[in-house]
Design a protein that fits this description.
single chain, 118 residues, alpha+beta, Alpha-Beta Plaits, 2 helices
């Protein structure tokens, strides 16, 4: 199962951790894993060209199945709001995936709760 853990602070989203594997299909044919990967990596890959800085991200070196995004607190209010918007958009999309594929994905978040609770 893929677990998405969202940590929030008074400034908004402060950390998003995605771990595990969906096992919804054969390796290379798992549409749930592909969806979660596309949404999360697509968001993270867009930060530098859109906002002009490299996000603080930790990835599993081997085997995949782990992403930790430490959402930076930015002094520039406009950039901070844009980064938060990207983070919330990613989380909402992951919640949508969890609602559809709750057997394979769960989202733990105090704002946008979703997915299975096994």
């Amino acid at each position: 199962m893929i677990e998405v853990q969202v940590v929030r602070s008074q400034f908004g989203v402060s950390e998003v951790t995605i771990s595990g594997h969906a096992h919804a299909g054969k390796h290379g044919q798992d549409i749930v894993c592909s969806a979660v990967s596309a949404v999360s990596l697509g968001t993270l890959n867009g930060i530098q060209p859109l906002l002009g800085f490299v996000p603080d991200v930790e990835l599993a070196e081997k085997g995949g199945g782990f992403i930790k995004w430490r959402v930076q607190e930015l002094a520039d209010e406009r950039l901070h709001e844009q980064q938060q918007l990207l983070a919330e958009s990613m989380i909402i999309t992951l919640v949508g995936i969890a609602h559809r594929y709750g057997k394979y994905v769960v989202v733990h978040d105090t704002k946008w709760q979703g997915g299975a609770t096994q």
